[in-house]
# Entry
Amino acid sequence: MAGALAGNGHEVALGSRDPQAALARDDVNQQTGTTLAGWSGASPEVRIVTNAEAAAHGATVWNAASGAASLGALESAGAERLDGKILVDITNPIVRSPDGVTLDPIGTDSVAERIQRAFPTARVVKALNTVTAVVMVDPASLAGGDHTLPICGNDDDAKREVTSWLTDWFGWRDVLDIGDLTAARAQEAYLLFWLRLMQTSGSSVVSTKVVR
Amino acid sequence: MAGALAGNGHEVALGSRDPQAALARDDVNQQTGTTLAGWSGASPEVRIVTNAEAAAHGATVWNAASGAASLGALESAGAERLDGKILVDITNPIVRSPDGVTLDPIGTDSVAERIQRAFPTARVVKALNTVTAVVMVDPASLAGGDHTLPICGNDDDAKREVTSWLTDWFGWRDVLDIGDLTAARAQEAYLLFWLRLMQTSGSSVVSTKVVR
# Structure
């Protein structure tokens, strides 16, 4: 996401709890095929900074932390640095229990609503949690882009703005506003279905088209 | 469903806790536009009987009770009358709470699994819970049928048989086996998403096509 935003001409700062520790880790990212340090070396246009510095930098904040880590990451960013900004929440609260993969919360709450409650002056828009990273920024890589991206949120202007970004920058053709932020319960619960589609198709490059 | 099965040449018995009370009720069904008595008068080929009589009658059992009422309805049908039979579970465990519509169970269990645990020798197949009644039996009424029906269950032969019925009798073109019966958690959780699609589109004639 950071690379795709930079590729669209934006100045991107990528936030971490501890940038030096993150750059020292040898985990290979499945999407980039390299470590964060390796990716960063090839992506000098994206600065890797603290969460607070990233939130201070951005006119818009994209939350791509894990669902469970999101509130902590945003608290370390600082509420005053989120005030009035569009906050695009990409996350899913996946948890692995002895009974299998599930989500927490599920059904009567969502990560997006928790973020909105914790940061009431942020303009939270839930989007992009329903597809894998490569499809988020290149929907045409799957079926020529003939599938649907649901979004939701309480701020209609913010949803319109995010929709125009998704359309103009990444080429999404069917961004569907499914309602206020309580719809994030549905949009996150969908992930359980998506995980089965991924297992069935043997690929994370899978999505759904809403037929109406 | 009963009418559509009868229309395909099957002898259908429709089970009720109390057939006489059901026929005396003046509720108008949204799909048929009439009361059960009115529908029954126009559908003499479908007998309305007790749950036990319906289960004894059928080579196959279709559970179209509400999610919350399903275990009770099947217990009144009698475990011995379900033994070895394919049991197609169409239900969703919708509950209306002060926090909004949700499902119970959700995430770590499903109605279909509860039924399977209660009736271990029934061959439970989860199917058709993801679309409204008219679409279940006439998928071509939406986008010419270009959308997907997920199914799941522990018995591969039962899934293949149900898939052939859905294809041959109702014209489903894309029946997608998403796994064993634990996938019913995903297939039921999808309903939360579907309810938002219904609200957004203003029609229950809405579905999704899996793009892979």
